[in-house]
Amino acid sequence: MKVSVGGRVFDLLNIVVLALIGFVTLFPLYYVFIVSFTDSQEYLQKNGFVLFPQNWTLAAYKYLLATPAFKNATAVSTFLATVGTGLSLIFTAAMAFGMSRKRLRGRRIIMLMVLLTILFNAGIIPNYIVVRELGLINSVWALIIPVLISGWNVILMKSFFDSIPAELEDAALIDGCNDLGTFFRIVLPLSAPALAAFGLFYAVGYWNTFFNAVLYINDFAKVPLQIVLRNMLIDSETSTGGAAAVEMISEQQIPIQTIKMAAVVIASVPILIVYPFLQKHFAKGVLLGSVKG
Amino acid sequence: MDKNKKRRTLLSDLRRDKYLYLLVLPGVLFFIIFKYVPMWGIIIAFQEYSPYMGVLKSEWVGIEHFVRFFSNPDFMLLFRNTMMISLLNLMFFFPLPIILSLLLNELNNEVFKRVIQSVVYLPHFLSWVIIAGISFLLMSQSSGIINLMMEAIGLRKYDFLTNADTFWGLLVLQNIWKETGWGTIIILAAITGVDTQLYEAAKIDGANRWRQTWHVTLPAIRSVILILLILRLGHIMDVGFEQVFLMSNGAVARVADVFETYVYRNGIQQGQFSYSTAVGLFKSVVGLILVVLANRLAKRIGEDGVY
Q1: CB-based contact, B231 to chain A, within 8 Å
Q2: ipTM of the complex
Q3: CB-based contacts of A68: which residues, under 8 Å, 6+ apart?
Q4: Which of A141, A189, B138, B163 falls 20 to 30 Å from A148 in CA-CA distance?
Q5: What is the structure's pLDDT at B304?
Q6: CA distances from A28 to A24, A32, B68, B178 (A)
Q7: A177 in the Ramachandran plot: left (φ > 0), alpha (ψ -120 to 50) or beta?
Q8: Non-local CB neighbours of A270 within 8 Å, separated by 6+ positions
Q9: Beta-carbon separation of A125 and B277 below 8 A
Q10: How far, in Å, CA of A32 to CA of A41, rounded?
């Protein structure tokens, strides 16, 4: 087909506009990254105006990784993102698998029960009281157990399991598999792409845990990374553990800004590393859940 | 006799499907304990809840807390802030994923398209703490690079972060940066689903690309856009606690306080459990009504709705 002049101009403009959008998206991340590696002398000399540093240094990272409070919080977040994600996936899949079996008595009621929780939430205070009554305050489990299963994910995973051909499971049944065997040996391995997508969503949720930690964790030794990050970045004076964060920074000659940005990099890198591997799966996951909006 | 038979089958069903029930049980318990027990706990909104007496023995006060809240000037302030933040997001953020999807769809270079997509999805995965931190790095009045650049070209420095006039705009801007790319996934999928024969037919009728977009693509994705819009309207009471909480400071408190931050401050920080539960209940009920209405509306215009 003949390409008109107008079409060419549009194509060119389109590429320019999209490249600009890409730049606007990436630049803040690039700048954070650059500042975190900039030598302190240079940073101060250029008054923060560093787009490409001459002297790269790992000083800010070395400093952070030698800071107990930061190391500790990173360990808490790593625990949440691994153990939490694993538990969430297992329990979500188990429930969804059971609900996808048509002969299960009461599956309608269970479905309705899950749906209702998506539409209506009791609110912050009643949830807080339940967690407190269970004695979970100041326990890392308060950041896992109350968010163990997402109603949306159960429903999405159920519809995914619905689409697995029944013949496969009949064959397993004939070969002597009971329901547990079918679930662990047939259905789960077949669902690897779905598990990858939901795993990423759960992992991001756990790694980014912030509000629940504000609510349930007062003990600074048990807070996750996002809380320490917030104390470092935002208000160093008022919040719990803020004093410790200030102290840990101010006794250093490295400019506070480069340390802050190194912390941001450390807090975002795990996600940026898993992201490309799972990208092809999560689009599918989102589409399954397209109703979620 | 009949009853007996039924009971036997229920029992035999339980026995036959014991492993299935075993798989479902932890999930069911989770929803009961962490979703339905709190719903029952809502009754403290009608009590003077005392942690020592518990939910069962606390004194009943009826709708006193609701009366107190509605007659409080805070109520109008919270309502205004919540609505304004939601409506500004609706006006300025909502159309962007659609526009971005249409632009991406017009790209002929698959590799470039995929690169841009991967880049714009990224911010969705960053926490609000990180977004707030990046905002401070870029926009701080003394050392933010935006202000440094403005100064370099002879403009005056501007206070972006502790300015009540621009606070709502700042929230919308952050939301746009974080979620626009992610929002394209659904719309691009809808565009991919459009029958290519329609484009062929349009071409034969002499439609250029703009006309193809206007007469084929947009009508084809109309229903998806409508559903997304209706859903957004249903969630107009939810502005997202974390973003507002993190960006708040003394200077913007008057425009930054929303229902969720108010509940947190009065309930968790000051221990007014019953009063805060009443405020939260008001928000949840209005939210529920809006979602149900939105869903009805979606069905009325001939779409599937959400449930």
Answers
A1: yes
A2: 0.90
A3: none
A4: A189
A5: 64
A6: 7, 6, 45, 12
A7: beta
A8: A81, A207
A9: yes
A10: 17
Note whether A32 contacts B: Cβ–Cβ < 8 A.
yes
- Per DSSP, A55 falls in state S
Q: Cβ of B294 under 8 Å from any chain A Cβ?
A: no
CB contacts under 8 A, A 195-214 vs B, are 204, 207-208, 210-211, 214
Residue B230 host element (H or E): helix B218-234
Are the beta carbons of B239 and B260 closer than 8 angstroms?
yes
* pLDDT (tens digit per residue) in A3-43: 678 888 989 999 999 999 999 999 999 999 999 998 877 88
What SS3 state is found at A85? helix
Q: Which helix (H) or strand (E) holds B47?
A: strand B47-48
- Both tokens of A227, joined, read 């809380």
Query: Residues of B with CB below 8 A from A127's CB?
Result: 34, 38
Nearest-angstrom CA–CA distance, A68 and A75: 10
Nearest to B293 by CA among B237, B222, B231, B239: B231
Contact (CB, 8 A) for A98 and B23: yes
d(CA A15, CA A8): 11
Q: Encode pLDDT of A173-231 as tens digits.
A: 888 888 888 899 888 988 888 898 899 889 999 999 999 999 999 998 999 999 999 98
Cα B63 from Cα B293, distance rounded (Å): 26
Look at residue B192 in the predicted model and tell me its pLDDT. 87
- Its pTM stands at 0.90
Which chain B residues are closer than 8 Å to A24 by Cβ? Answer: 177
**pLDDT tens-digit map of B7-49:** 667 788 888 888 999 999 999 999 999 999 999 999 999 999 9
